[in-house]
Amino acid sequence: MIYEIIGIIYKPTGNMLTDSEGNEYPEMQPVEGYHVNALDLTEEDRQKLEPYIIQPKTPYCIFAGREKDTVFLKFNSREEWLALGFEKIEEEVI
């Protein structure tokens, strides 16, 4: 399986804010969940990830040239994603 961590997605609230220099910018709020995109799932991967597969109306991000087979995953948290064992975290060596 190939995957890309999207993480937390932010969307505009519709309100504009102003920074200390007078520049306006959109206020953003997080979209619920922790997001990952995947490709080339084995049948075993698909079964394990089935509860997390979503079908967004307007995807935030897709794999270039793979619009039709990008699998969109949504978890409650990064910890939930990590618990499945797909992403390996390297421990810091001191």
What does this structure look like?
The two termini are 31 Å apart. Strands 1-4-6-5 form a four-stranded antiparallel beta sheet. It has helices at 43-49, 78-83, and strands at 2-7, 10-18, 24-30, 34-39, 53-54, 71-75. By secondary structure, it is mainly beta. The longest helix has 7 residues, at 43-49. The protein has one domain.
Quick structural gist:
This protein is mainly beta and 94 residues long. The chain has two helices and six strands; from the N terminus they run ββββαββα. It has helices at residues 43-49, 78-83, and strands spanning 2-7, 10-18, 24-30, 34-39, 53-54, 71-75.
Q: Span between N and C termini?
A: 31 Å
Radius of gyration: 17 Å
The outline comes out as: globular
What proportion of the residues form beta strands (DSSP E)?
35-45%
Average pLDDT, all residues: 92
Features:
single chain, 94 residues, mainly beta, 4-stranded antiparallel β-sheet, two-stranded antiparallel ribbon, 2 helices, 6 strands
Layout of secondary structure:
Elements: E1 2-7, E2 10-18, E3 24-30, E4 34-39, H1 43-49, E5 53-54, E6 71-75, H2 78-83
Antiparallel strand pairs: 1-4, 2-3, 4-6, 5-6
